[in-house]
Amino acid sequence: MSGNRAAFLLEPKGRFEVRDAPIEQPGPGEVLVKVQAGALQPADEKVAKMAMLPVEYPAVLGSPVGGIVQALGEGVTKVAVGDHIVCGTKIFTHKKPKYGGMQRYTLVDESEVIEVSNLLVGSYLHRTNSRGIQVGDTDFTKVVTLGSYTPPGCLFGSNTLNMQYPSIPANPLAADEEGKKILIWGGSSAMGSLCISYAKQAGYTVISTSSPHNFDLLKSLGADHIFDHSDPTTVDKIRNLFPIHYWLDTISLNQSVTTICKILAPEGKPATKAYIHMLLPMVMAGNPTLPEGVTAGMHRFSTHAPENADWAKYFLSRGGFMEQGIKSGVIKGVPPYSLGGLEKVSEGIEELHKGVSGKKVVIDPWA
Ligand SMILES: NC(=O)c1ccc[n+]([C@@H]2O[C@H](COP(=O)([O-])OP(=O)(O)OC[C@H]3O[C@@H](n4cnc5c(N)ncnc54)[C@H](OP(=O)(O)O)[C@@H]3O)[C@@H](O)[C@H]2O)c1
């Protein structure tokens, strides 16, 4: 096994340095992955620039990763050595550098691994995993844009929006959900784009927003009604689509929260009662006062929580919805923005700091 290299954030708000790192052995329930593509997410930027979440330094950030299973910890049966997988990393829960994505080898949790071998149906099968099954070429750069369980967590968790589960093919909605609509604010974000495709696959009508240059992307994801988030007429246009049954703000900053509140509470009129599911804490939006009858809550979701056991079985198990959705192509997101190798991690953080539009920053640790 050739050696590991990682992009280390040397200290809080410090600089990155690429250097050799140990290849760690997987503990019970862990999987060692040879990373082929790793994504940077806004949380990485918030940690790198503002030290907003605690991690051990020198730190290795990044999630999710796509790659090839290299070794299995005790008790792992979900995947085999040689399988192609995508998985969120454990860096913000376990904090140690061996769990970050910006390196050639990382450790992930078996329970969250999604097997994606044979993603390209009919592709040339040329690798064999340890169970003797042939696996094909995988476009890891694309796969890594799809490997987040936050979108299905937001939409389908029993303590989140609790919408009807998606299926392949999409089943009609049950009688009590029939015709229901969801507003997904921020449809060109990495999370928003995935939420659109999950909600469509569950059979809902999707209303979403982005800048006009991303309208085609939102259309390709299946959004039914698309509006410019900066156009003042969007408020009335969305209100004309009432009733809207589910509200998801994937941006969760002051402009998005206050605009959603304007839709719910036209000046001088009582507000429509609603719960807004947010991806950031209200303090990041400047703690705006919500109209009476409107509540909001931040997405906090553990795939291990007992109340999410059914959810985890449906979405994360071998052959479960995420595996099927990614392999079949029904789960779609923003395109990858491949920056290059580990030396580009710092540049990737700067891109996120400036704000990306309709794309996901992806690093190839072997480039
Ligand atoms: N709580 C959790 O578990 C959790 C998990 C994942 C992510 N998050 C958080 O969720 C947020 C989104 O993450 P992400 O990776 O999806 O972000 P992202 O892809 O970096 O978001 C970029 C997009 O945001 C859009 N945008 C910016 N301002 C907007 C506005 N006012 N209204 C509508 N769209 C706007 C831009 O749209 P246009 O370019 O089209 O204008 C752009 O496409 C981040 O803050 C992240 O930290 C939280």
From TrEMBL:
From the UniProt record, list the coiled-coil ranges.
Answer: none
The question of whether Translocase is a record keyword is answered with: no
Keywords on this record? Oxidoreductase
Could you state a single Gene Ontology molecular function term?
Answer: oxidoreductase activity, acting on NAD(P)H
* InterPro entries, per database record: ADH-like_C, ADH-like_N, ER, GroES-like_sf, NAD(P)-bd_dom_sf, Trans-enoyl_RdTase-like
Record domain Enoyl reductase (ER): where:
14-362
Domain of life where this protein originates: Eukaryota
CDD domains per the UniProt record, alphabetical: enoyl_reductase_like
Q: Which residues cross the membrane?
A: none
* Subunit and partners: Monomer.
Protein family (similarity comment) = Belongs to the zinc-containing alcohol dehydrogenase family.
This chain's protein is named Enoyl reductase (ER) domain-containing protein
Q: Which organism is it from?
A: Didymosphaeria variabile
User: Which classification does the entry list for the species?
Assistant: Eukaryota, Fungi, Dikarya, Ascomycota, Pezizomycotina
